[in-house]
């Protein structure tokens, strides 16, 4: 069967990215508490973490080859989100009580100083981001607001209320647009003009909470990961409303990280499945699902079509949808499963008998070469961070360890 060449985990099939795989470097074990966010340092072999035990830690690699803390700073409440600017050494930390703290980490990573703080929200700060060019600091929260403060005076400039708990935020300084994910699976696209936030659009395609966003400013593409296991690429710059589904996960997406230069997106989920997506690959939008009350191939009525079932003295069947043509079909007419990377299906998906025969008949028209590399990290991942230049990826597992991976062969 031509349609079954890509068995998961796909360790042997060469993809459009070649046959490079992530290589394990080192594990930093036995962290005291659950890590809520991590930043992989670029100028030093080390990481910044914020943890459930109310601590900011800087862990540096020592001569022994082991990572040890050079800074442990305890806070008054639990830190949820972090933003670090390695040029200005400024560290922003969003707290569970709604406060945002700003610290400066010394250039030698041996000391930390608290500069200021402001009560930005009434509930947990789930995302914080600073823009040097716009001189603004943005935060979003479980209190359903996005708030922006002046980076120089820390005076509040404006705020915007959405319908649900905010989960994550990204900012594009050039267009002054904020992308904010929420708990209901929506993404708000807000243009910030002075103290007002103008909603340009609301992107709704996920069926569960947005867990992570990545913004590719070069190509004008936004990537969203959801608790519905789906990654979606939104072509914001194209302005035609195109969006592409990236189906490679079976568990909640826990983090997305982007490498802009070779155009790769890494997505990881709560079961530890890591996917590196080739963003240069030409992709096709998945079709909308047809709404029919009987099978479009064999005409058998679906179970809710009571009249037709009665007229024909037949039992109605369950409806399925072919993922590559969108037709409403019965189980008998869509018994085939295949990958279809061009449409984002890196894992096998259901297709109808017509599409299956077309794929069999014209294999040259249906290139099934994977457009992503998949890998098992063997531990559920809570969050991760990528350093594009060195090709290092830090992944934090639920068992409180940090795994360092070399992904340079994928970049
Ligand atoms: Zn049928
Ligand atoms: Zn079909």
TrEMBL record:
GO cellular component terms attached to this protein's record: early endosome
Matches recorded under Pfam families: FYVE (PF01363), WD40 (PF00400)
Q: Which InterPro entries match?
A: WD40/YVTN_repeat-like_dom_sf, WD40_repeat_CS, WD40_repeat_dom_sf, WD40_rpt, WDFY1/WDFY2, Znf_FYVE, Znf_FYVE-rel, Znf_FYVE_PHD
Q: Does the keyword Ion transport apply?
A: no
- Spans of repeat WD: 203-236, 246-287
Protein's name according to its UniProt entry: FYVE-type domain-containing protein
**Per the database record, which ranges form the FYVE-type domain?**
289-360
Query: What are the leading ranks of the lineage?
Result: Eukaryota, Metazoa, Ecdysozoa, Nematoda, Chromadorea
- Domain of life of the native organism: Eukaryota
Query: What is an example of a GO molecular function annotated in this UniProt entry?
Result: zinc ion binding
Organism of this sequence: Panagrolaimus superbus
Keywords attached to this Swiss-Prot or TrEMBL record, sorted alphabetically, are: Metal-binding, Repeat, WD repeat, Zinc, Zinc-finger
